[in-house]
Amino acid sequence: MLYRKNMDSRERWVRVIGGALIVACSLTQIGPTLLGLVLATAGVLTALTGLIGFCPACAMAGRKPLEGPR
């Protein structure tokens, strides 16, 4: 791997669930408009960071990787 996880399991679950909710709400409430698709893309990216366990924005802000094995 080229990265080390910088999120604990609780934050990862919150990101996955939150990302799924963002996608669902944006497509059902706003619809397949440009704004709805942009918000759905943001939700997918949020969920992906939760699945992977690494957030590039957090790393750039200075969050240290978790201790332990990769």
What's the mean pLDDT score?
A: 89
Classify the secondary structure makeup into a structural class. Answer: mainly alpha
| Strand proportion | under 5%
- Low-pLDDT ranges: none
Overall geometry comes to elongated
In DSSP terms (H or I, runs of 4 or more residues), the helix count works out at 3
The run of helices and strands is HHH
Alpha carbon gap, first and last residue: 8 Å
Largest sheet: none
Please count the beta strands (DSSP E, at least 2 residues each).
0
Specify Rg, calculated over alpha carbons.
14 Å
Helix percent reads 55-70%
Q: Give the total of domains.
A: 1
Please tag this protein with its features.
elongated, mainly alpha, 70 residues, single chain
Please provide a brief summary of the model:
The chain is an all-alpha fold.
Describe the structure.
Helices cover 66% and strands 0% of the residues. It is mostly helical and 70 residues long. The chain has one domain. The protein is elongated and about 45 Å long.
List the helices and strands and how they pair.
Elements: H1 9-30, H2 34-52, H3 56-60
